[in-house]
Amino acid sequence: MHYLGIDYGDRWIGLALGDDETNIASPFLTFENTGDAALIELETIVMSEGIDVIVVGVPYNPGQSDEQQEKTRAFIRELGYRVLCPVKEFDERFTSKEARTHMRQGGGDEHAIAAMLILQSYLETSAKGLPGHF
């Protein structure tokens, strides 16, 4: 299976690619969040890369709902209407901080690295049957 990891933000959308054969996620690209045009761009990427599952990081804070969480879930719903593959939520609580650490150590794009960390965590937890997706 081929996976697309997404770090969704108000200004930028970071992407990562991975598969269950290697169980490795890699940063792919980042583009500006331009609303509907960004969704069209994602539809194209899903088709051209042969994506079977999309994993979107959600800033999950138990017991409370916040504005970014609701925006991300609205994005997930809209993307789910546009693509033929499942769109799954995954807890991204610590990925932004981890992405900045990766950037300091080796460079790269913060948003694509955050998407890679989300997808890598998903691949590892799903391979082990651990919770993390909701």
Write the layout of secondary structure elements.
Layout: E1 2-8, E2 12-19, E3 24-32, H1 36-48, E4 53-58, H2 67-82, E5 87-91, H3 95-106, H4 110-128
Parallel strand pairs: 1-4, 4-5
Antiparallel strand pairs: 1-2, 2-3
Helix pairs in contact: 3-4
Low-confidence stretches: none
What CATH architecture do you see?
Answer: 2-Layer Sandwich
Quick one: CATH class? Answer: Alpha Beta
How many whole angstroms does the radius of gyration measure?
A: 14 Å
* Strand numbers in spatial order across the main sheet: 3-2-1-4-5
- Biggest β-sheet strands, sense, barrel: 5 strands, mixed
User: How many strands?
Assistant: 5
Could you give me the name of the CATH homologous superfamily? Answer: YqgF/RNase H-like domain
Helix content, binned percent: 40-55%
Distance between the termini: 20 Å
- What is the string of helix and strand elements? EEEHEHEHH
Give the overall form.
globular
How big a fraction of the residues is strand? 25-35%
> Which fold name fills CATH's third level, the topology?
Nucleotidyltransferase, domain 5
Number of helices: 4
Instruction: Please state the structural category.
Output: alpha/beta
Number of domains: 1
Look at the structure and give the mean pLDDT: 86
